[in-house]
């Protein structure tokens, strides 16, 4: 009987731990979302993985990479714009294509 109480106590501690850390609430929300889904997905496990992954806290490294990508996109757009302006400027100084062939 003592073994049963020890196991029960460990389960209760684990349940409190899951409750305190928000795991039970998150799992409940995801399962409710699955239950309320009008068309059930083929893979309930994939549904859970997708929804749990979406609500997971951001990894700082991933956020840093996202910021870097955003900065690179801005720089890329600026370089494209500069390239366009320089091509226009260069075209003013180059003779038209027809004149080059005649020389």
Automatic annotation (TrEMBL):
Broad class of where this protein is predominantly found: nucleus
Single GO MF annotation: transcription coactivator activity
A GO CC annotation given for this chain: mitochondrion
Species of provenance: Aquila chrysaetos chrysaetos
Record keywords: Coiled coil, Nucleus
Alphabetized CDD domains for the sequence: ZIP_MycBP-like (cd21937)
Name the UniProt record assigns to this protein: MYC binding protein
Coiled-coil regions listed in the entry: 62-89
Compartments reported by the entry: Nucleus
The UniProt record lists the keyword Coiled coil: yes
Gene: MYCBP
Superkingdom, taxonomy of origin: Eukaryota
PANTHER family, sorted: ASSOCIATE OF C-MYC AMY-1 (PTHR13168), C-MYC-BINDING PROTEIN (PTHR13168:SF0)
Family membership: Belongs to the AMY1 family.
Biological process annotations from GO: spermatogenesis
InterPro entries for the chain: AMY1
Membrane-crossing residue ranges in chain numbering: none
């Amino acid at each position: 009987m003592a073994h049963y109480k020890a196991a029960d106590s460990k389960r209760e501690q684990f349940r409190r731990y899951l409750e305190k850390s928000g795991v039970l609430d998150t799992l409940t929300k995801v399962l409710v979302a699955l239950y309320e889904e009008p068309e059930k997905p083929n893979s309930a496990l994939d549904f859970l993985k997708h929804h749990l992954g979406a609500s997971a806290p951001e990894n700082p490294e991933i956020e840093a990479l996202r910021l870097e990508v955003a900065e690179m996109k801005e720089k890329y757009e600026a370089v494209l714009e500069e390239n366009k302006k320089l091509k226009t400027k260069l075209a003013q100084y180059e003779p038209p294509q027809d004149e080059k062939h005649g020389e």
